[in-house]
Backbone:
């Protein structure tokens, strides 16, 4: 059974006004002091209005779900000590002037990328799935490419930007694409080619190091995992469990295809970018590009195709029925973008949207 871990970036907000607050340094220091073994799950991020955590690797999805809820509650507890709250929102609905952290790396990014760094207050969910080797990892990355836009559609949770409705379900993903190293990749074919591409990117001097290679899916530098990076941070804590379930299914399915000698799909980066754009625009409320044909189909039809694609792997891990139930529940409830827009229609104000999302973050 492949292990899975999740990283989530949470927005720090004032619990009354809903405005983003730059308190990550103080919260991280307090969390480190409170950790008995020195292994607290929280990490610094580019902007001081963000707080990131990483779960421990899990084999059982129920255990992963409990770990996500525990980490969210711990983040809320630490933030509360400073009169702050956490919200699983992929962009701030209210206007914000992001504060860049003092780390030398972040200052280099601000100098190098200018306004793209200063405005990059977006919050994602990354899923790590264990692989046996770099050979398997690159083979998996090559074969997962067409399906990643579907995971993005499930996670959409950023319809608002600087106080306005963007018309997108995931505007975070559009802001993220400003990084020159972000997005889908061509087929690599081997670990050697993957490392050659990464080395060539670093040698240009445009990016600082391997950590700034922001592929939609990449080999993790520090752990034997494939890291899938396309998702918004999700409002409801059950959604990252669904993402992790489907991501593990995609990795296992791709590994089996590789071992069986099946070649990756030939979709080029230009078409994959269109699939990602359509997912960001529509979420699960309209049409998506079908990963096999790259033609428009309804979101439910594409999700059924994804479940069929990974069905054997999910059945073998005991996750198939749960995944089907979670997909059906998400389609009925909607993703975070739909929830945020419904909250705005009911309340009439983005402040109320944020304060309600604070509550739902810990449900």
Residues:
């Amino acid at each position: 059974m492949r292990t899975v871990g999740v990283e989530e970036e949470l927005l720090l907000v004032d619990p009354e006004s809903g405005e983003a607050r730059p308190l990550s340094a103080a919260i991280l220091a307090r969390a480190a002091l409170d950790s008995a073994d020195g292994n607290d799950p929280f990490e610094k991020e580019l902007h001081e209005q963000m707080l990131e955590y990483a779960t421990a690797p899990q084999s059982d999805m129920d255990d992963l779900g409990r770990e996500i809820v525990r980490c969210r509650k711990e983040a809320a507890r630490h933030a509360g000590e400073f009169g702050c709250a956490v919200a699983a929102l992929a962009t701030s609905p209210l206007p914000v002037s992001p504060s860049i952290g003092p780390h030398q790396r972040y200052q280099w990014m601000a100098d190098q990328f200018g306004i793209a760094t200063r405005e990059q207050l977006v919050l994602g969910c990354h899923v790590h799935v264990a692989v046996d080797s770099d050979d398997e990892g690159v083979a998996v990355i090559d074969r997962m490419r067409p399906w990643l836009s579907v995971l993005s559609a499930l996670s959409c949770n950023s319809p608002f930007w600087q106080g306005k409705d963007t018309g997108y379900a995931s505007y975070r993903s559009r802001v993220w694409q400003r990084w020159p190293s972000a997005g889908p990749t061509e087929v690599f074919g081997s670990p050697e080619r993957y490392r050659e591409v990464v080395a060539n990117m670093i040698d240009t001097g445009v990016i600082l190091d391997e950590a700034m290679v922001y592929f939609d899916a990449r080999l993790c530098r520090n752990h034997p995992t494939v890291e899938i990076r396309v998702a918004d941070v999700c409002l409801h804590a059950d959604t990252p469990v669904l993402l992790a379930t489907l991501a593990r299914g995609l990795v296992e399915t791709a590994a089996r295809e590789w071992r069986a000698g099946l070649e990756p799909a030939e979709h080029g980066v230009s078409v994959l970018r269109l699939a990602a754009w359509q997912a960001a625009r529509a979420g699960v409320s309209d049409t998506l590009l079908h990963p096999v044909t790259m033609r428009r189909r309804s979101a439910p039809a594409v999700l059924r195709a994804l479940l069929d694609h990974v069905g054997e792997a999910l059945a073998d891990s005991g996750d198939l029925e749960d995944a089907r139930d979670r997909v059906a529940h998400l389609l009925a409830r909607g993703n975070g973008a739909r929830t945020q827009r419904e909250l705005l229609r009911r309340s009439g104000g983005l402040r109320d949207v944020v304060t309600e999302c604070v509550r739902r973050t810990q449900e």
In short: The longest strand covers residues 4-13. Residues 238-259 form the longest helix (22 residues).
